[in-house]
Amino acid sequence: MATRRRATLRPTRSSPIAATFATCAANCGAGYPNNREEDAMASSAKSFRVIDTGIRGGRANIAFDQALIDAHKARRIPDTIRFLRFRPSALVGIHQILSHEVRLDYCRSKGIEIGRRITGGGGLYLDEGQIGWELVFGRSSLGAMDLTETTRRICESVALGLNKLGVPARYRPRNDIDVDGRKISGTGGFFDGDTLFYQGTLLIDFDPEQMIAALKVPVEKLAKRDLASARQRVVSMREILGDHLPDLATIQQALLDGLAEGLGIVPQWGEVSMHEEELAEQLYRDEIGSDDFVEMIDAPEVDGSLVSATLTRRGGSLRADIRLEGPDRGRIREALITGDFFVTPPRVIFDLEAALRGAELANAGSIVENFFSRTSADFVNLGPPDIRDVVVAAARQLSFVAAGRRLRGHWLAATRPERPPLVLLHDALGCARLWRDFPERLAAATGCSVLVFDRWGSGDSEPLELPHSRQYLLAEALDALPEVLRTTGARRPILVGHSDGAAIALTFAGAFPDEVSGVVAIAPHLFREQRTVDGIAAQIRDFEHGDLRARLARYHGSRTDHLFGRLVDAWTGEEARDWGIKPYVGRVRAPVLAVQGSEDEFFTHAQLETLRALVPARIETCVLEGCGHAPHQQATSAVIAAAAGFIDRVTAGNTVAAVPGSA
Prior knowledge:
The chain is α/β, with parallel strands linked by helices and 663 residues long. The protein is 38% helix and 22% strand. The strands form 5 sheets. The protein has an 8-stranded mixed sheet, sandwiched between helices. α3 links the parallel β1 and β2. α13 packs antiparallel against α14. The two termini are 48 Å apart. 50% of the residues are buried.
């Protein structure tokens, strides 16, 4: 398992960084506060030094961040506001898997520096079209606050400064500043002892296409239909102010005015000390500038000894990978907890991983609980229960064989066990992780248990093999899915399928009418249309020349090429295809809810009309305006509400009963 190469950000007495610090303190004392100056500093805690370190590389800027923290903790510098700018850089959060977030080959070919931040959060692309702003200050300087409240106050103050320039910005939890729903500044920070480090970036003149090219933006954040409107998710000051965009000094002053007014501080311009520069250089050379630090977290290889889970919560995404050992694989050899979350201090996650190492897998949840009961940690919109949930979910990952292929999945427990289970079937390029929080929200809304799993060739399941079968939908419905249900104990479920998954669900319901209680078909398809051909052609171009391959590899790894190749084989060609599923769909007797987006980029309303004509049971339909091919991602609440209402009617017997007919 590829694990963290431990990087101690805080200097120890024997470290070169500590030695450099001691030398600087001894030899450069004229540049630093003496005891009297420190007392004065403490008595005027709300005075903040302001510095501008100009344009630097990503790793050099991060090294200077750590230098500020170390110097402030040692009381060698006062509370400080720093402005900074970047040469083109792609930076991941401290807890993120590098290869999942950054298009490494592209960045290297374009001279884009790759780095790892010392804060949490997601991947960022930075260049000269943005400015960074940072605060390093004592915990008592603004009064006692946790990280969530500190985030709110700082972001609201920055937004106040932007409003002074005519930019109608506001704070949007968990950690963004936006203008009419479009992000103009992302932020994040953490406490290190009594020192708080908080940073943000401000889009001055920004090209989002460069960000998309450099980063593996999650598929669910940038669906194919949304790439053309990437500019609508972020906004720059130039777009808002046009020719009235002020110069850099004016922007900096407005931000300082907002911070002064919102936080009650007194910003005063100062100078960067020699000590800070030398300490930053030492940190860069020995640690933060090294490839080992940047590459310290990478994706583990999936095999029989690995269990894994991903959860999406309001405070970010969480992933746990646990490598097992022992004759029954019941002991934890290594644990890796990653994601775009914010926790302070950041190394609390490293310490938790160490606490899990060597423990019995069955005790993983209680170990996490005990760890946080004795360890102080501050999360933004998350908490120790969320960390426990993802670790327990990984420990309980299912591994089973269906149609001769090993698949992976998870059960979500029922709160109303008298109801039928829900079995989720993802689309052709999907996987369990790409449902994001949909399974949890659906389980909460219905009380049903939920089985979510990776179909053959997807996510953590066994890779596909050549040659690809063009009848794979039929094979999965008739051969694989019956074994999945028998092996996992999912009796007479309601099948919830998206796209290919919807076709599989409908086919199964027709082939085995007594084995299913209902079907929720999201973006179902029964045949190929011209819109389908055009949409697949666009996907092929994006896969070969755009960023689709990189975004899919984030979830499927080495399986990506085979998975996409099967899609191409099944959907392209001169002859029309219905994949042999229509005869089975025509025998569906269970109640059906069909959901489609009005702007589906692959299929027209003809799919629903054909489904109504084929299925002898009564069908409920829900067309969501403005949605594309993934309404469960683009209008999640509406889809869950429709599905929950349908499931209520099915379980209460208020829908039309199963229609008699030959199986």
